[in-house]
Amino acid sequence: MAHPSQLGFQDAASPVMEELLHFHDHALMIVLLISTLVLYIIVAMVSTKLTNKYILDSQEIEIVWTILPAVILILIALPSLRILYLMDEINDPHLTIKAMGHQWYWSYEYTDYEDLGFDSYMIPTQDLIPGQFRLLEADHRMVVPVESPIRVLVSAEDVLHSWAVPSLGVKMDAVPGRLNQTAFIASRPGVFYGQCSEICGANHSFMPIVVEAVPLEHFEKWSTMMLEDA
C-alpha cells in the first residue's frame, strides 16, 4: 500500500515485481553514473581555460564514445528482455479468473468453478468503516491463494479499461471484443490495491481493484461459502 510522500515503488508482493524493482535499481544506477560523468565534464569544460589538442581531434576518443553507449544499452536491454519474457510466461496456472471491465465496476468469474462470479463495486465514502481506504475499497474482493500461479483473463464490455495492481507487477488492458491474459503469483498473504489505469469515462477513478491473497485452506473455505450463497 502506497503512503503519502512515498518516492519509490510499493513493496513487491510477487516474484515478477521483485525482478522489476531490481531492474529499476540497476537502470537508475547506470543513469546516475552517466549523469555524474556528464556533469563533471561540463564543469571541467566551463571552469578551465586550458585546451588539450589531443581531445580536439582524436580517433581513439571517438571510438570509445561510440562503443561505450552501445555497451551501456546492451547492459540495460538484456535484463529488460529477460523480465519481458518472464512476465509473458504462464506455466500451468492453478486458477483462472476472468476480469471484465464495465462502466464503472469490475466483474470477476472463477472459470474453474461451475458458478462462482460476482461484481465488484467501489464502497462509497460515506459507507467506509475505520481503517478502509477512500476510493480503493471494493464491496467484493478478488480472493486468490498464496504461492499459486494465477491466470487472469482480462476483457471489457463497453470501453477501454486497464486491470492494474502495482504491488503484484500486473497491468493489462481490457479491450472490448478481445481477451488478454496475464499471470501473477502472490508471494505473501495480504490485501493489494489497484485501480483502472485507462481513462474510461466520467467515473474512471471510481473502479478500484482489490486482490486478497490468503492461504490455500482459507481460499477453499471462501470458495465453498460463495458457492453455497450462490
UniProtKB/TrEMBL annotation:
It is a multi-pass membrane protein. Binds a copper A center. GO terms for cellular component: mitochondrial inner membrane. The chain crosses the membrane at residues 27-51, 63-85. Belongs to the cytochrome c oxidase subunit 2 family. It comes from Coregonus autumnalis. CDD domains: CcO_II_C. PROSITE patterns: COX2, COX2_CUA, COX2_TM. The gene is COX2. The lineage of its organism: Eukaryota, Metazoa, Chordata, Craniata, Vertebrata. Residues 92-225 form the Cytochrome oxidase subunit II copper A binding domain. This is Cytochrome c oxidase subunit 2. It is found in: Mitochondrion inner membrane.
